[in-house]
Amino acid sequence: MRHLPLVCSLGALAVCSTKAISAKPDERQIVIADEVRTAFYEHAPSSMAREMSAAVLVWCEQFRDPNGDSSPPKQHQWLCGTYRLEYFRGVYVTGDRGPRGLVCERSGTTELRYFGQDLVNDLLEDGSCVAAHRSSKATYELYVPVKTHDGDA
User: pTM for the whole thing?
Assistant: First the structure.
């Protein structure tokens, strides 16, 4: 009688496992993954800033000619020039730090401690910041919109 709870729990486990095994192979469970919303951006720690800086160098390299001169699109010359850049990381509404970041041209605005999402949208729209996203464990990629002659991104 002492072992009855153990026997019952093992029996329940066996029923659950048999049920899982007997499921049709063409039935698949749909899992919807949704990223938590970004609440704000804060200054990135130096290790993350270095990773985003490497992404800037990779992006700018595509515009370098054999003589070593660089000619990126006019609206993003600040990104490949000798200007000081500031790096920010996204913070989710849960308080967790996310893989998204911003690379911004140093200005009075970048001296703010936090960037709200509305300010970030304005900075991305006017071209004074570009988005960065971690594509692997320590590699970032830049998302740089290229404006056409009619102003569309």
Answer: 0.67
Task: Tell me the pLDDT of the chain (153 aa) as tens digits.
Answer: 444 443 343 344 344 444 444 455 566 666 565 668 889 999 999 999 999 999 998 888 887 776 666 676 677 788 887 678 999 999 999 999 988 999 998 888 888 899 898 899 999 998 889 999 988 776 888 888 876 555 444
Domain membership flag for residue 150: no
Q: Which domain holds residue 52?
A: 38-143
For 45-60, letters b (16+ CB in 10 Å) and e give eeebbebbbebbeebb
Residue 99 lies in a domain: yes
Give the containing element (helix H, strand E) for 99: strand 97-105
Total of domains in the chain: 1
